[in-house]
Amino acid sequence: MKQRPDKGILHEIFVCLHLQRQLLPNMELRFWRTKRGDEVDFVIVKNRKPIPIEVKSDIKAPQIPSGLAKFLHAYPECKQAYVFNENLNGEVKVNNAIVQFKTLNKAEQIEELQEVSDT
């Protein structure tokens, strides 16, 4: 997998499929893009509260992707965000949000996303 030039899109599809399977009736799966080209791969909206999700194949340190940083600046009410990746776990606080770095295999467990968005 590491040698594939399309591994980034494959990882995004993997996360998307896991997120779609677990959506509840009061949840929507969207994406975010500005006219300037800033983007976030997925945004789960539950009860009108956004939870941005980025998928990055190769990250070595818990650095916030630029599109996610701009999303969190544009939506200061956002309390939680996720970056799914190949091998990094941890969390970083950005403004009012906790950004959690999780490995791709955790994409099948969005119970945390559901709990966080209820607050």
Q: Please, could you describe this protein's structure?
A:
- The structure is a single chain.
- The chain is an alpha/beta fold.
- The protein is built from three helices and six strands.
- A six-stranded mixed β-sheet has the order 1-2-3-4-6-5.
- The model has no long low-confidence stretch (mean pLDDT 88).
Strand order of the largest sheet: 1-2-3-4-6-5
* Number of beta strands: 6
Low-confidence spans:
none
What kind of oligomer do you see?
A: single chain
Distance between the termini: 38 Å
Q: Strand pairing plus helix content: what structural class? A: alpha/beta
The shape is globular
Rg for CA atoms:
13 Å
Q: Give the biggest beta sheet.
A: 6 strands, mixed
- What is the ordering of alpha helices and beta strands? HEEEHEEEH
Map the helices and strands.
Elements: H1 7-21, E1 27-33, E2 39-46, E3 49-55, H2 66-74, E4 80-85, E5 90-94, E6 97-103, H3 111-117
Parallel strand pairs: 3-4, 4-6
Antiparallel strand pairs: 1-2, 2-3, 5-6
Brief rundown of the structure:
This protein has 119 residues and is an alpha/beta fold.
